[in-house]
Amino acid sequence: xxxxxxxxxxxxxxxxxxxxxxxxxxxxxxxxxxxxxxxxxxxxxxxxxxxxxxxxxxxxxxxxxxxxxxxxxxxxxxxxxxxxxxxxxxxxxxxxxxxxxxxxxxxxxxxxxxxxxxxxxxxxxxxxxxxxxxxxxxxxxxxxxxxxxxxxxxxxxxxxxxxxxxxxxxxxxxxxxxxxxxxxxxxxxxxxxxxxxxxxxxxxxxxxxxxxxxxxxxxxxxxxxxxxxxxxxxxxxxxxxxxxxxxxxxxxxxxxxxxxxxxxxxxxxxxxxxxxxxxxxxxxxxxxxxxxxxxx
Length: 296
Known about the structure:
By secondary structure, the protein is an all-alpha fold. Helices cover 47% and strands 0% of the residues.
């Protein structure tokens, strides 16, 4: 039967898999998000005469010498531009060039001359004259006669026992011999053992020692002593001596405390006198070495 044979032949051919396998199709790439966003939307053409938006130009480096933009001000305002002028600042207040020593006055309120800053009104006691002559003899350009003339110029009262030229010349000779050779020994004055239980006694003793140190420094000033010519040890001793003199001045101007042990104050003054006397001896020894070096 022809019909049956055809069907069987077709079914047999379907059940058989003959020939080459079909090639697999590559998967299509997924469209990007931008393409998906514009899918289905018509792109409008640019209007006639319209120009495309300009591209931002790259930043150019600043020219040499141009000021860089400054940081913002603390107040929150914009920084000052390069061309704006800064506000002039107030000049600092200048201190007075006048020394505090040049404004001091004597006991009667008169202005003191430069030479009297160290020993106001000249020497007033035998001890002050002794320290003045010690300074004149030990000075770099030592001259005992200049010290004698200083005493006579300050003490012009007739019959003044401290203004006897013969006595002054004898004291100057003793100081010159002491300084010329041998060990330089301390010459502390002998203090009267008066009442040491009052603040006035402390102030008076500080005043006396301050004037004695001032007499020695005045003698060095009369002899034109240059501290730059001294060695470091002698210069340091002289500086310490002046600092102790300043401390004594502070004590003289201090107010009386409510409760204090004044005998303890005097024990401190004993130590201060020994310390300042040792400094004076150091300065004398330094100046003697300086004189020997110049003469040699």
